[in-house]
Amino acid sequence: MHSRVTWNWSAVGFLLAALVLMPACMPAPGGGTHAHRSPSPTGLATVSPSPAVTGPVSADLRDPAQVVSRDGLLRTRIVVERKKVELAGRPLWALTYNGQYMPPTLRLKPGDRMEITFDNRLDKQTNLHVHGMHVSPAGNSDNVFLAIEPGKTFQYSYRFPESLEPGTYWYHPHPHAFSAAQTAGGMSGIIVVDGLDEYLPPSLRNITEHVVALKDFQIVGDQIKTENLKIGAPTTRTVNGQLNPRIRIRPGETQLWRLANIGANIFYKVALPGHRFHVVAQDGYPVNKVYSADSIVIPAGARYDVLVQGGPEGTRALQTFPYNTGKAGNQFPQATLATVASAGEPMTAEPMPTAFGPTDDLATAPVAGRQTITYTENAAGTEFFINGKQFDHNRVDFRVKLNTVEEWTIRNNTDEVHSFHVHTNDFQVMSINGRPRTNYGLQDTVDVPPRGTMVIRSRFLDYPGRTVLHCHILNHEDLGMMSVLQIDK
Q1: What is the largest CA-CA distance in the chain?
Q2: Window from 22-36, 164-178, 223-237, 455-469 with minimum mean pLDDT
Q3: Which carries the bigger pLDDT value, residue 363 or residue 13?
C-alpha cells in the first residue's frame, strides 16, 4: 500500500477535458506550493485549477444526514466510488462516500460499538481512519496500515471505551501517498460523540446545533482535482458541501456549531465579525473552562465546538480571514463561508457557561520518557522528513510504554507552519516557543510555527499497538512527514 500508483483517468469526459485544457498544462512548481509528484497519463493533473467559485447566499444550511447508534451499536455501510455530484452549481466528478460529497454524520455514544461494511469501488486502494478517536489502532479497528484493494469489501469493527470524550471527530482515508488526493477529492465526513450537553447549564441543553464542516475543492474541467495538488492554488470553500449557505438564528438565540476542517491541506481563520465564539470543546475534548475568541485558526484536521449567539436582526458573513503560513508556505485569501441571518422573535441571551468539563492536567504527572520530533523539508518543498527520515511502514520510529506519560518536543526547522497530529491518544500542549500554554484540555491536531518549538505531554492509555504521528497537511504527510509509533504493553 505504500508504493506510488497513478490514477487511471480513462473516462471519456476526462479525456475531453484534457484536450480542452491542454494548452494550459505546465509543470507544477515546487517551493511553497508543494506540488504532489505523481504523474498523470492524460496531463490533466498538471493543469492549473480554475478560479475559486464564489456567489451570493444559495440556500439554507443543510446538516448532513445522520446514522445514529441504537442500543449501543452503530452499523452502516460505506461505499467508496467516483461519482458526479452537484457542487457550487455545477456537476463535478468527485470521490464520494455513499455517492455524496457530504456523506452522513456518524453519531454515537461513549461505550458504543461501530460496525462498518467498507466497499471500495475505486480503481485504487484505500482505507478508513476515524480521526481523533481513542480506539484500538490494531486489527480491523482504526488500523491505517490496512489496504482495501479495488473491488474489495472489508468489515471494520470498533469498540469505543466508556471514557470516550464527547465532541466532534471525523472520518477520512489514510492510505500512504494517496491520503491528500482522496481527501481532497471529497472523501471525508463527520463523527459526533454525544454527551457535551451534560456539561451545559439546563437552559442550553436543547439548543439548535449545526455541523459546520469546512470542505474545499479545486476544479479542473468537470472534475475535482486530486493529483499534483498545490496548497496555495485557487480553491472553492464550502460548508457541508454548500456554497455560501444561509445559517438562520434568532436575535439572542444560542446555537452550538461544530466547526471542523475536514479538507486535505488548507487553513481557515474563521470569524463572524461582531460576534465571539465561545469554545466548549476542541478536537473532540470538552474544555475545562469555556473561553471566547473573535476568530479561530483551524488547520486541516482540527475541530472546535462553539456556542454562538445571534446578534441584532440582519445578515452577517461568516468568513475566513487572510492567513499566512510563512515564507515557505502559503497565503490564504479572505473568503465568505456562509451568511448568518439573524431574524425572528428575539430571545433572551443566556449567560455563557464558564466552568465546563473536568480538568485533565498532565503538568504534575510523572514523566516516563522524553523524545524529540524534528520537522524538516527540502528546498523545493517536494520531500518532507521527521528526524531526517521519510515514512517507512516497516520501520518503528518511536516507542512508548502503555500506561505512562511522555514529554515530547516537536521542533519545526522549516520556514512554514506544520501541524502535529498523533493517532490513538490526545496530548496536552505545555508550551509553544517557550511560552507556557493555558491548559483548556487535550487536543490531537496543533500547529507548530515556523522555526518554532512545541512541548507536549501525552498519556498512553488502553490500547497497545502500532500507529502513526504526522503533519496533518496531507500533502506533507504523503511526501514523507509521518512516523510509526509503537505502543508497547
Answers
A1: 63
A2: 22-36
A3: 363
* Residue 68 buriedness (CB in 10 A; 0-12 / 13-18 / 19+): middle
How would DSSP label each residue in 424-469?
SS-EEEEEETTEEPP----BSEEEE-TT-EEEEEEE--S--EEEEE
The beta strands (E) that lie in 88-220 are given as 90-97, 105-108, 113-120, 129-131, 153-159, 167-172, 189-193, 209-217, 219-220
pLDDT, tens only, 291-313: 999 999 999 999 999 999 999 99
- CA atoms of 357 and 165, how far apart (whole Å): 10
Give me the sheet containing 295-298, strands edge to edge. Answer: 246-249, 335-342, 314-320, 268-271, 295-298
CA terminus-to-terminus distance, the chain: 27
Backbone angles phi, psi at 453, to 5 degrees: -135, 135
SS3 202: helix
pLDDT of the residue at 46? 72
Residue 15 has pLDDT above 90, yes or no: no
Q: How far is CA 262 from CA 19, 43, 185, 391, in A?
A: 32, 28, 12, 23
- CATH code for the domain defined by 369-488: 2.60.40.420
Q: What is the pTM of this model?
A: 0.91
CA-CA distance, 174 to 350, in Å (whole number)? Answer: 42
DSSP E strand boundaries for 321-378 = 323-324, 331-332, 335-342, 369-377
**At 184, is the secondary structure helix, strand, or coil?**
helix
Q: Kindly report, as residue ranges, where domains of CATH 2.60.40.420 are found in the chain.
A: 199-342, 369-488
Q: Is the pLDDT of residue 8 over 50?
A: no
Closest of 479, 419, 480, 430 to residue 458, by C-alpha: 430
Average pLDDT over residues 202-213: 97
- Counted residue by residue, the chain has a size of 489
- Pick the closest to residue 335 from 271, 265, 247, 292 (CA basis): 271
| Higher local confidence (pLDDT), 48 or 301 | 301
Domain at 199-342, CATH from 2.60.40.420, 3.40.50.800, 2.120.10.30, 3.40.140.20 = 2.60.40.420
